[in-house]
Amino acid sequence: MPLLAAAAPLGAHADPALKTLLMLDFEMIDETGDTSALPAQNARLEIISQQLSNEFHQKQLYTILDRAPVQAMIDEQRSRFKLNDCNGCELDIARALNADRVLTAWVQKVSNLILNLNIEIKDARTGATVLMKSVDIRGNTDQTWTRGINFMVRSMVDKQQGNR
User: Fold this and answer.
1) Rounded to an integer, what distance in angstroms lies between the CA atom of residue 21 and that of residue 48?
2) Considering only CA atoms, which of 66, 59, 67 is closest in space to residue 18?
3) Residue 30: is it exposed, middle or buried by C-beta count within 10 angstroms (0-12/13-18/19+)?
4) Which tens digit of pLDDT belongs to each residue from 42-88?
5) 39, exposed or middle or buried, with CB in 10 Å at 0-12, 13-18, 19+?
6) Would you identify the CATH topology of the domain 20-158?
7) Which of 25, 48, 105, 138 lies 20 to 30 Å (CA to CA) from residue 120?
8) Contacts of 113 (CB under 8 A, 6+ apart)
9) Sheet-wide strand order for 20-30
10) Side-chain half-sphere of 75: how many Cα atoms within 13 Å?
11) Using CA atoms, how far apart are residues 36 and 24, in angstroms rounded to an integer?
């Protein structure tokens, strides 16, 4: 049963010309079997999720919506699936929030040296991908992860890839 929720922008001064975006947190895809880095990586996932949200807001790439009204839906789906690969569940959540767009994000760990930061933005109504970006980073540290996000956002600004 879909949850009906009023979408509220996080920022007090939402630009009506900007599309609204449900931004879902980064998730980890790690098939290396290395569990020793797990606590640090989980902390980094939170850091870069917040960093990306802040950067999108500051650079006015989208109006970021408050997820609180649909957090239960997010938690329920996340308990069963990775949200970037859940057969459209992210679209249902975005529609329940009345979002124009939904962003899924994941870090793919190839090794402790090679990681990829990925985002995909979809039109919540049609499910069509409007933007997909990936940044390869070398090194599994706070600095490399945050630099990867900085590069991704700077690239989006330079190529005018916001508000699609």
Assistant:
1) 17
2) 59
3) middle
4) 999 999 999 999 999 999 999 999 999 999 999 999 999 999 999 99
5) exposed
6) Rossmann fold (3.40.50)
7) 138
8) 138, 139, 140
9) 63-64, 20-30, 101-109, 114-123, 129-138
10) 6
11) 25
Query: Token match 């940044």: residue?
Result: 135
- pLDDT, one tens digit per residue, over 123-162 is 999 999 999 999 999 999 999 999 999 999 999 999 999 9
Question: Residue for token digits 């049963």?
Answer: 1
| Amino acid, res. 62 | Y
21: which 2 tokens? 């975006």
- Count Cβ atoms below 10 Å from residue 28 Cβ, excluding itself: 15
For residue 137, give the 3-state DSSP assignment: strand
